Amino acid sequence: MAVLHPQVPAWGAAAPAPPSGARLGRVVRVDRGLLTVVTAEGPARLPPDQRLRDGAAPAVGDWVAVVGERVAEVLPRRTALTRTVAGRTSAAQVLAANLDLVLVVDTLVEHARVRRVERFLAMAWGSGAVPLVVLTKADACADVEAAVAQVAEDAVGVDVLAVSAHTGAGLADLRARLAPGTTCAVVGPSGVGKSTLLNALAGHEAATTTEVRGDGRGRHTTTAAQLHVLPGGALLVDTPGLRELELADDEGLAAAFADVTDLLTGCRFRDCAHAGEPGCALGAAVDDGRLDPARYRAWRKLQAEAERTGLRRAERRRARGRAQRSR
Ligand SMILES: Nc1nc2c(ncn2[C@@H]2O[C@H](COP(=O)(O)OP(=O)(O)OP(=O)(O)O)[C@@H](O)[C@H]2O)c(=O)[nH]1
Ligand SMILES: [Zn+2]
User: Fold this and answer.
1) 300 alpha carbon, closest ligand
2) Same domain, 198 and 295
3) What is the ipTM of this complex?
4) Pair 297, 287: CB distance under 8 Å
5) What is the residue range of 70's domain?
6) Which of 109, 141, 185, 312 makes an SS bond possible with 237, Cβ 3.0 to 4.6 Å?
């Protein structure tokens, strides 16, 4: 595990000023509610203040105000990677805060990757950070160039790198993009090699890895969200699995599907559901080959998902309002 030195670049370039009377800290690990915070005095395990519960809980990467031996306040976030907690409540959970770069990791050895990458890209764009696609296991892929090109086609405006943690191919290129003092996160489905990649970048065992199950579906092994310091001075967040990923809203979706979004203004009806109506610009683009039908279906699916999540969240707000009024 990465040892955090008091002078860790956890301070980065963009450290905010703490309120007067408080010390500045950065959350480097969240473990069952207990926080590991680095302050000028070094790392310490600190409990969050009572008020910092549920929706207001600090996340890895957060800048916080430390008063005495407690985390008193979360300072405003520049960017945040969120997901909707699975289940009926649909509260948005912040997985990592103040990120500059989100590495969307997938593998070159499976065919489902294009649709998965789209999904994680929507999440990455939604965070406010810049995404970068990293495709792993290049050593086990017969035609890396073709596989990269296939993903790049749908990753509009995002760079796509191929790497191998086993041979080291592509790692220098990736390292060059992880500038000192920047905070990065690794996201992607289980088993694609996130932990192995992190260890290769860190140059030591920074994360726990296990062999993927025989059925190829992988196993959820990373347990706590943690900020690692890389030898080059960049900070890397390793977050747990994220397999139940649901989109919290459609903000990132518009960016991840900029090509589709651009077409929408061409629909004849303003309330077009893009489901086969006459004059639908998306249907027309699919028909004349400008839009890949699979990408169109993926967009509709994610759009519907973001809408469902949004509706659930609105319902929850209403329920909260009712509860407050009846008090
Ligand atoms: N051939 C090859 N296999 C790799 C490479 N990187 C990782 N693997 C294998 O892929 C499997 C999964 O790797 P992990 O690093 O545990 O995957 P993960 O994404 O961290 O998985 P979770 O912790 O479940 O999210 C392991 O069996 C690794 O040995 C690589 O560059 N080449
Ligand atoms: Zn339409």
Assistant:
1) 2
2) no
3) 0.95
4) no
5) 9-77
6) 185
